[in-house]
């Protein structure tokens, strides 16, 4: 007999390195900065930063911290954005009450666009609140 899989078990989660890379690239592009500019500020090679942004390399925590600093991004914002994107993929609502400027935070912008989305079949929608 085959065990019954819930809708959540049928989904595959994205690799964290790809998610983090796309968030970093989006932030860099939003600032209209080049790979070279950010790589120099973070003291990593342009090629390595490009690989990180494309999700091909799994950066160390030191490299992530350096790239975040170069982008003027707090590590908690990077992790919070990744959390919100993963939660939204599962149909969960995430409201970040810690955001200093909610209009700049990707999680809040994304949530506004998807807050009405129904929970996947067979699942109850869940709200996650991030507060200080």
Description:
It is built from seven helices and two strands. The protein has 132 residues and is mostly helical. The protein has a two-stranded parallel sheet. Helix 3 crosses helix 5 (61-71) and helix 6 packs parallel to helix 7 (106-114). InterPro entries: Cro/C1-type_HTH (IPR001387), Lambda_DNA-bd_dom_sf (IPR010982), TransReg_Diox_bact_type (IPR050807). This is HTH cro/C1-type domain-containing protein. GO terms for molecular function: DNA binding; DNA-binding transcription factor activity.
The percentage helix is 40-55%
Total discrete domains: 2
CATH architecture descriptor name of the largest domain:
Orthogonal Bundle
Overall form:
globular
* Strand composition percent: 5-15%
The CATH class of the largest domain turns out to be Mainly Alpha
Instruction: Return the CATH topology of the largest domain.
Output: 434 Repressor (Amino-terminal Domain)
The number of helical segments is 7
Category by helix and strand content: mainly alpha
Strand order of the largest sheet: 1-2
Pfam families: HTH_3
Protein name: HTH cro/C1-type domain-containing protein
Domain HTH cro/C1-type: 24-78
Keywords: DNA-binding
